[in-house]
Amino acid sequence: MVTDHTQANNELKPIADSNKVPVPTKLQGDSEVTYKRLEKLSGSKFDAAYIKVMVSDHDKTVSAFEDASSKVKNPDLKAFVDKTLPVLRQHKDHIHEIASQSGKA
């Protein structure tokens, strides 16, 4: 997952730069709050919280990308969305499977 997300970020940055859209360089808002909450946990408490966050985040992200796929006008961004969406769906399916197997669904 880290490899796929890093690759997606590396592909998105030039598109953002060419459209003069700033790319955050550190966690902000809810992401920062979630990180700080998770870093205080360990063991099974961390696992349960992390799975819950990943399920929610991937559900939201896939939904946003599906919506963007039909609405984005910029051809470079549309290509990025359409290329990335299958990978995001795969991650979503995987985290839902993990949640189900762990009883965290």
Name the features.
globular; 4 helices
In short:
By secondary structure, this protein is mainly α. The protein has four helices and no strands.
Describe the structure.
- With 105 residues, the protein is mainly alpha-helical.
- The chain has one domain (28-102).
- It is built from 4 helices and no strands.
- It has helices at residues 2-18, 29-39, 43-71, 75-102.
- α1 (2-18) runs antiparallel to α4 (75-102) and α3 packs antiparallel against α4 (75-102).
- The chain is globular, with a radius of gyration of 15 Å.
Draw up the topology in text.
Elements: H1 2-18, H2 29-39, H3 43-71, H4 75-102
Mean pLDDT: 94
Net shape: globular
Largest sheet: none
Instruction: Tally the helices.
Output: 4
> How much strand content do the residues show?
under 5%
- Poorly predicted ranges: none
Rounded radius of gyration (Å) = 15 Å
Distance between the termini: 20 Å
Number of strands: 0
- Helix percentage: over 70%
| Helix/strand order | HHHH
The total domain count is 1
Structural class assignment: mainly alpha
